[in-house]
Amino acid sequence: MTEKRPFDILNGALGGSVLLKLKGGVEVRGTMASYDVHMNIVLENAEQLEDGEVKRKLGTMLVRGDNIVFISPS
Amino acid sequence: MTEKRPFDILNGALGGSVLLKLKGGVEVRGTMASYDVHMNIVLENAEQLEDGEVKRKLGTMLVRGDNIVFISPS
Amino acid sequence: MTEKRPFDILNGALGGSVLLKLKGGVEVRGTMASYDVHMNIVLENAEQLEDGEVKRKLGTMLVRGDNIVFISPS
Amino acid sequence: MTEKRPFDILNGALGGSVLLKLKGGVEVRGTMASYDVHMNIVLENAEQLEDGEVKRKLGTMLVRGDNIVFISPS
Amino acid sequence: MTEKRPFDILNGALGGSVLLKLKGGVEVRGTMASYDVHMNIVLENAEQLEDGEVKRKLGTMLVRGDNIVFISPS
Amino acid sequence: MTEKRPFDILNGALGGSVLLKLKGGVEVRGTMASYDVHMNIVLENAEQLEDGEVKRKLGTMLVRGDNIVFISPS
Amino acid sequence: MTEKRPFDILNGALGGSVLLKLKGGVEVRGTMASYDVHMNIVLENAEQLEDGEVKRKLGTMLVRGDNIVFISPS
Fold first, then answer.
1. Which of A22, A56, A62 sits opposite B6 (nearest CB)?
2. What CATH class is the domain G13-73?
3. CATH architecture of E8-73
């Protein structure tokens, strides 16, 4: 167990693949390119998932932080 | 992977086509004409999409930032 | 493409017809009479739409800005 | 078209009948007795409507502003 | 028609029976014992209603103001 | 009828059993161990209820205040 | 019954297993690694649950505090 603060996980995830669960049930996966204090997140090579399968490829995307339920680096 | 901040992607998207996923499932696509710090966005030649197909043409539109789930330049 | 800020579109829409998509799926159309910084909007000769058809005529109405999904001048 | 600010419509509606559409689809109608800057509104002789018909009479009521979708004087 | 401010109605309702419609459709009725500036309200001898019938008796309860749709003294 | 302020009821409920109705319809019951100004509440010996029956035992739990619809000491 | 403040429970839960109920009904369980004042929480060895069964393993995850309904150390 680490004792890092929650936002440390965002910094450590830069450049790696992350899974984002959004409000309303949408899930997207991509390479985390940047974030800010509102947890707004830019993904590259992003894909929208449905039941774990790729539904469509979205390239670069900006996800509003207030729509994020959780973020999981993979 | 870039290290740009999330809002940089909005600036880079000006004048190009973007896809917006809104709360409640509506999707719109158009040419990004302007934005502000609340992520309010003006699209021109905007179209509302349904299952990826054009449902109706809306011309110029102002989308409230707090309804945006994600923005993807295309 | 213009480089006007999002709220400029509201000013330009004064006196003309606008379509408002509200949270919960309601759509209204009317002549834009005024707005404020919260995006509260007064419409005159307003009509509530359903599937693009006029459902009922509402005359003058004040729409709370935080219920607006998008505004499209027509 | 007037150029009054949105809240002017509330002042002009005092003492007259207004229709309020609330979040969740409820509609109420009554005589507008007072309002404040949060758009909290007191109606007198208020009635809850369903499909345009009176569902029940509620007398005096205070409606929280943040539940209001739109207000239409009639 | 009175010209009292919206919160005046809360003060006048102290000690009397009020009907509260809450977000999500729940309705409760009880004797209004206190309130604060957030519209948090304490009811005594409170009952939860369903289709106008008493569903269960809840005694004393504190209702969070931000869940209130409307308050109607009876 | 008392004239205590709404939060007084929380203080008086410390150490006793309370019923919490949460947004989304979940109900929990337990011994109220602490609260703060955001109405965040710690319950001990907490149980999640369904139709008034115990669905599962949850032991100690922290409930976020902004998810609470009402609190009823029993 | 303790008289600790609500956030004390988070501190006491560090390094142990917690169950998080999120808005929209999702439940996750994992080892609590960190939290902040917004109740943002990092779990390690996290699992998403469905009807109490493990639906999928998610490893490390950051859960936004404003999506949390309740937190229960186990």
1. A62
2. mainly beta
3. Roll (2.30)
